[in-house]
Specification:
With 217 residues, this protein is mainly α. It has 2 domains: 130 residues, Rossmann fold (3-Layer(aba) Sandwich); 77 residues, Orthogonal Bundle (DNA polymerase, domain 1). Helix content is 42%, strand content 10%. The protein is built from 8 helices and 5 strands. The strands form 2 sheets. A 3-stranded parallel β-sheet has the order 1-2-3, with helices on one face. The model has no long low-confidence stretch (mean pLDDT 87).
Length: 217
Amino acid sequence: MSKFVIAFDVYGTLLDTSSISGALSETLHLDKNKAEATSALWRRYQLEYTWRLNSMKLYQSFDIITEKSLRHALKESGISFDDPVIKKLMEAYNILPCFPDTASSVQQLQRSDNMKIVIFTNGTHEMASKALDAAGLSHFALDVYTVENHKRYKPDPEVNAFDVTGSLSTGMRAIYVDRSRNGWKDELLPLETPGALEPMKIVHGLEEIPGLLASLE
């Protein structure tokens, strides 16, 4: 029987990062559209900061990056803030809810004897622990792997791959969770990589993954 090790990212895969728009709206008194746009900008800069640090061979922990990218997004959006506001929003980021299909899908995967579920995240151990606990996922007792020891962010090969393209570039198989149903549009590959040029499967929710993997046994 095959043995699968399934590495889930935390932010944006298990936990809904877009939900932080609610905290932005409440804390900063923003309308729905402004809060959602600011949330998306925050997430964009959070990821961009990690890539820029990688390219400069520098490192700051993900909690610091998350706060810096929040400040960047607020400034660019023309939103006034102070340190107490930042603290409140950072606290909200540590208690993001999971997607509706997360808990049931992880539970179903854990029932299989040939599947091991792990967490692989840019976040610190402390961030991941708080987030999983707040989202009601800590009882699954998943092994958590972070980039902290290597001080390099995904998709640096030293810490392995992030997202579908990063995984494919290291020869791994990848599943793209396309919740928004926009299709696969990444054009970075092909490069001189050992892997495929696109995900082996596109799904629209985590609940599709157990059946997909069962078909590969």
